[in-house]
Specification:
mainly alpha, Lysozyme, three-stranded antiparallel beta sheet, 3 strands, about 140 residues, 5 helices
């Protein structure tokens, strides 16, 4: 009996093998390599902060928001109704392209989004958690960039 309870608890604690959670510094490095540091005036710390609050650094995250009738994809939870697949498809790609841990397509689409009139305010989580943060630099603490 005790063994089955312990095994059940261990099963709940394990991360699924398909998960691709990236470390904070790995995300920072990939975003830096993709030209995101001060892209459109936003520091790398802003982008890392956004990635945390959108997906917890999971580039394969998919969130279905049935209340607002959209699905968010990838590291930045880019919405299908405007940016990929059968919506307006402003990034000219399949939403599944945004789920690749190499982040190349995600970065290209995020650059397109941030060039728009709402810039980083396109992501409400950035406005709530990152925009007025006086501790943004902590997102890069200890990262060798």
């Amino acid at each position: 009996m005790k063994v089955s309870v312990v095994l059940s608890l261990i099963g709940y604690l394990m991360v699924p093998s398909g998960a691709h959670i990236l470390g904070r510094c790995v995300v920072a490095k990939k975003l830096q390599e993709g030209g995101m540091d001060y892209y459109e005036g936003y520091s790398l710390a802003n982008w890392v902060c956004l990635a945390y609050f959108e997906s917890k650094f999971n580039p394969t995250a998919v969130y279905d928001n049935s209340q607002e009738n959209y699905t968010g994809y990838g590291l930045f939870q880019i919405r299908n109704d405007d940016w990929c697949d059968h919506g307006r498809n402003r990034c000219h790609m399949a939403c599944s392209d945004l789920l690749n841990p190499n982040l190349k397509k995600t970065i290209a689409c995020a650059k397109k989004i941030v060039r728009g009139k709402d810039a980083m305010r396109s992501w409400p989580s950035w406005t709530l958690n990152c925009q007025f943060s006086d501790t943004l630099s902590r997102w890069l603490d200890g990262c060798k960039l």
